[in-house]
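Q: Structure tokens for this one, please.
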Amino acid sequence: MSSSVSASVFIQVEDISEPVPEHKPEINVWDDKDVYVVQSKHEDALINYENALDIRIHKYGRRHHHVAQCYLGIGNEYWNQARYEDALANYEKALEIRIHKYGYNHPDVAQCYVGIGNVYVEQSRYEDALENYENALEICIDKYGHNHPYVEACYNNIAVVYLNQSRYDEALANFEKALVIRIWKYGHNHSDVATCYFGIGNVYWNQSRYEDALSNYEKALDIYIDKYGSNHLDVAQCYFGIGKVYWTQSRYEDALANYRKALEIRIHKYGHKHPDVAQCYFGIGKVYWIQSRYEDTLANYAKALEIYIDKYGYNHRDVAQCYFGIGKVYWNQSRYEDALANYENALEIRIHKYGRKHRHITPCYLGIGNVYWNQARYEDALANYEKAFQIRIHKYGYNHPDVAQCYLGIGNVYVEQTRYEDALENYENALEICIDKYGHNHPYVEACYNNIAVVYLNQSRYEDALANFEKALAIKKKIYGEIHADVSTTLHQIANVYCDQAKYKDSLENYHKVVGYIQSYHGDTHPEVASTLHTIANGYYKKGKYKGAVTNYVNVLKIYIDKFGHNHPKTH
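A: Here is the predicted structure, written as tokens:
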């Protein structure tokens, strides 16, 4: 061969960073509510609590249980405003007073433990949160028995911690304990029962049990609509969860419809500048990204980013998630410097938040590696792929799909460096993992076969290349059907192999199939039709069939004149 062939298939870099939690702990469920709290007017509620605090300190002093109640209310309002350090300070003041007043084994002390645990959840201090929730649970069981609302609230919050720690079986067990108590206490059609269904749905979603997740989200949705009507925040939460399931199941229009319902409710309730609104914009952007509607994707990611920065500042996980998403769009648009800048922004935030050895860092390294690969900066690409690889084998061991993704990236670099045996070793490692995890008919398996074929093609091992391209083609047909752009791409590669072998009859047969496929989904005058017809013309010329060559060259010329005019370089 006159030149090497690039390994063009990547496993798309997915962001595995922790999502914005859709299931938050229940905050002080046995607290008396200020009217402004009920109306979600948190600034007004805060002013009232602070006024009450001043009066009570003046009347009772700083160590009185009425003062503790004010600190607790202030803590709740700071928590609702995401001012978590301020919330923690007030919860701890309340806790100190109540322990002094009642000792450690009192329900009012348990209430403080719940508040402190809620703060720790938001700060990702999950073990500290768990310790506080378990302290509260122990007190409540001792005081009220096993079937009390305070007990099931503790089970719910413990489940939330386990969910955030990816300890899904333990999360499920605690959600189910809460569910049993709530059904016994309230019956099946109660909002607290719906909360459990939603939490169980989140567990199933994280376990890739999507139909089970959908079933539980829909149970929660039905209850919330019945109780609150269609324009309630809990309804919006369910729509978002359902949208998430549909997105994962590639039901993108259904996902989009549910994300938009959630967005409409949240804008109505919160206005345009709330993090939950940003979450919807990001979900909508993900749908548009998968549909290759990149400008629409960017517009929605940019809205989400602006809200998150305004709410949290620049050094927050949700800001990093937006930067990463924007980087992926730019990479798909071949705007590599813009992609690099956004991946590096995401990386900087995540290193600050998680350290250098955390799995959430690895998608950034892979994204940066992909940019460098596209810029032919192969040593820089390799360095980043290997950073991701080292973190992932430390986290998962060698037999994990995320490790396979690193093998593919490293293999792609080795192809460009003509280190074909090294490339082949990495691709085969990736293939073995993907078959083990996904079976034989998965897109990742197809990507491995494609790239192995590319190595063999560069080594002029044509029969081996054909065998692997054929395996890739068979998988694509099973996934996409006969008429699909990815199918025609592999047919084109197979035709190229036959051409390199001077098997022009087989080559032309496959090129003609490609033309037929392209015409079926792009029409007869698309530039890709012209490009393939030009290749066919060259094949006829090499076979000495000049009439066939001229016919195809004339057809190419007609398309180029129609598309570009007489003065375009392609027409010339």
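A few notes: The CA atoms of residues 408 and 427 lie 6 Å apart. The two ends are 28 Å apart (CA to CA).
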